[in-house]
Automatic annotation (TrEMBL):
<dbReference type="GO" id="GO:0050545">
    <property type="term" value="F:sulfopyruvate decarboxylase activity"/>
</dbReference>
<keyword id="KW-0378">Hydrolase</keyword>
<protein>
    <recommendedName>
        <fullName>Probable 2-phosphosulfolactate phosphatase</fullName>
        <ecNumber>3.1.3.71</ecNumber>
    </recommendedName>
</protein>
<dbReference type="Pfam" id="PF04029">
    <property type="entry name" value="2-ph_phosp"/>
</dbReference>
<dbReference type="InterPro" id="IPR005238">
    <property type="entry name" value="ComB-like"/>
</dbReference>
<dbReference type="GO" id="GO:0050532">
    <property type="term" value="F:2-phosphosulfolactate phosphatase activity"/>
</dbReference>
<keyword id="KW-0460">Magnesium</keyword>
<comment type="similarity">
    <text>Belongs to the ComB family.</text>
</comment>
<dbReference type="GO" id="GO:0000287">
    <property type="term" value="F:magnesium ion binding"/>
</dbReference>
<dbReference type="InterPro" id="IPR036702">
    <property type="entry name" value="ComB-like_sf"/>
</dbReference>
Amino acid sequence: MDARFVGIPELVEAPSVAVVVDVMRAFTVAAWAFAQGAEKIVLAESLDDALALKARHPDWLALKDGPAAPGFDLVNSPGLLQSADLGGRTLVQKTTAGTVGVLAVKEASLVLCASFVVAEATARLLRARKNDGVTFVVTGEDGQADEDLACAQYIAGRTTEAGTDAAGFLRRAAESRAAAELTEGVRQGVHPDDVALCLELDRFPFAMVATLEDSLMVLRPFRS
Ligand SMILES: O=C(O)[C@H](CS(=O)(=O)O)OP(=O)(O)O
Ligand SMILES: [Mg+2]
């Protein structure tokens, strides 16, 4: 498998297969939402779009990163989501990096959203698909976020070599700028357990696949 690692600004044309990685925190949060029972997550283009979708579907829950805001029900924190009952619910998610990365590759034939908590399930799906080339979208810091790059490189390694050791990749994520900002209170809408929850390798057995449904990008868990 030929693995390419790119930031969002480098996405000039849609790849065939894209794995969009956001460890801290969008796709750790998405996985937790499914673990808490959510049926699907609609990835919104903007905060206004998220609120408009919720207005059209009053039973949907809107989630954003940063501080809580009027009209939004949830923030982008795995620690805060852990106690939410999301059974059967649809979420609308809008974040700074993760959801933007997915919308940039919505024309791809296969779009996976990934983080360490679904790493092996993501690699398993890629192994089963036997793709020649996979584009990993490193969503944070215009492709420089080391927590996302480390996770992408780990998943690429697991896809081709089952024995890839996670320790060094997890260490890089733990030492990343994002981890420091979450720990030091630079970012808002944070639970004290967020960094640790983002570093839980293979916490969940499912991958996450995003598909276009009626012109919306919709994320669902995929159990192989
Ligand atoms: O919620 C997050 O950690 C970040 C946003 S920010 O860097 O705190 O503004 O969003 P994400 O898209 O999950 O990287
Ligand atoms: Mg991030």
